[in-house]
Amino acid sequence: MQKRIVVIGAGFAGMWSALAAARLLDQHDVSCDEIEVVMIAPEPMLVVRPRLYEDVPGKMAVPLLGLFDATGIRFVAGTVDRIDTVAREVGIVSPSGESRATLSYDGLVLASGSRLVRPDIPGLLEHTFSIDQIEEAVELDQHLHALVQQPKSEARNTVVVAGGGFTGIEIAAELPSRLRRILGPAASVRVIVVEKAADIGPDLGPGPRPVIETALSELGVECRLGVSAARFDAQGVVLSNGERIDAQTVVWTAGVRASNLTQQLPAERDRLGRVLVEDDLRVPSLAEVFATGDTACAATDDEGHTTMMSCQHALEMGRFAGNNVAATLLGQPTLPYRQTRYGTGLDLGPWGAVHTTGWDRQIIMQGAESKARKQWVNSIYIYPPLADRTTAFEAADPLGKRGGK
Q1: pLDDT of residue 403 exceeding 70
Q2: pLDDT of residue 401
Q3: What is the DSSP string of 282-302?
Q4: For residues 17-45, average pLDDT
Q5: How high is the pLDDT of residue 405?
Q6: Which CATH fold would you assign to the domain 3-115+256-344+384-395?
Q7: Which CATH class is domain 121-252?
Q8: Given pLDDT bands bounded at 50, 70 and 90, which one contains residue 404?
Q9: How many CB atoms sit inside 10 A of residue 185's CB?
Q10: What share of the chain is helix, strand, coil (3-state, %, to 5)?
Q11: CB-based contacts of 201: which residues, under 8 Å, 6+ apart?
């Protein structure tokens, strides 16, 4: 009887999980008729989520069907809304929402990613934009381009970015030049970052902070630190200190949380909703279920560090999770996930970028040189492999040259 590996999600972790599982099955001469690999996602597209702060975000998606056809992966269009770990099946809602189906599994990889947290702040849902998902980034982009049709005013030319973390910094650094391309090079524009912590980029630590502060200052980006958004309306935002900022555009970037599907697994979770997985990314109570990418909190080394919700970790976690779910069905040993190297690359718009190394984020590169490297990562390194079976399987090797060792 045919067995089935189901991968939920077509993000970085999901795509690499499916490829790595298919690779190991191929290595053991196991055909699709014996064990099939199925990916379930709304569309057969990889959204290059780390680039959604850039201009023209609608182009930041890569078709995957050619790659799946070349590697023997079956794609099912839909959204998983139910995981039954007793019956070993998932419930699927069709893209139109008009029909439902179930699909059984012998091995499961949860790679359904994360979503932006939207707390109960008055007016947040009605009056803010985001760049969390591609359709949301496109909506913001369309709104920005429509501003030129509005009467000139300070509010029209002002954007408030709520949240001064990684995403907030990148979109804020990009916006001054982006607005001037739309409104005209002589337009007087304001971009204001609101961050409740006392420092910009609180989770990035003190290492890159001087570079971030310099870049934002030279780009003309203002920062309101130690305050938060108290309420939003159609004309702007009121801060917790009572200050009102009139702005026709407010972008919410403050925090993400793991997919709600993690709540359906009988497992311990961290404060971000991520499943605390074993060394091989297995869900502790479920021998045949693995979690990866933003849905999993995993040890990266033996020094106590754990994965971040980042493309950097999702790429490698996917390779290990896919390999290991296939190994489980083949009766082969699984591989412990480790990714001992850690670095960050933060885009700072026209100013450049900054790269750091290590968990203490020591600066190794900044400015134009760093920008060139960031663009290479964003436009080449993180993209899917060619739709060629040999090339794709080589790239999906968790212990290959792209591995995290």
Answers
A1: no
A2: 67
A3: B-TT-TTEEE-GGGEE-B-SS
A4: 97
A5: 33
A6: FAD/NAD(P)-binding domain (3.50.50)
A7: alpha beta
A8: very low
A9: 7
A10: 35, 25, 40
A11: 164, 165, 166, 169, 208, 209, 212, 346
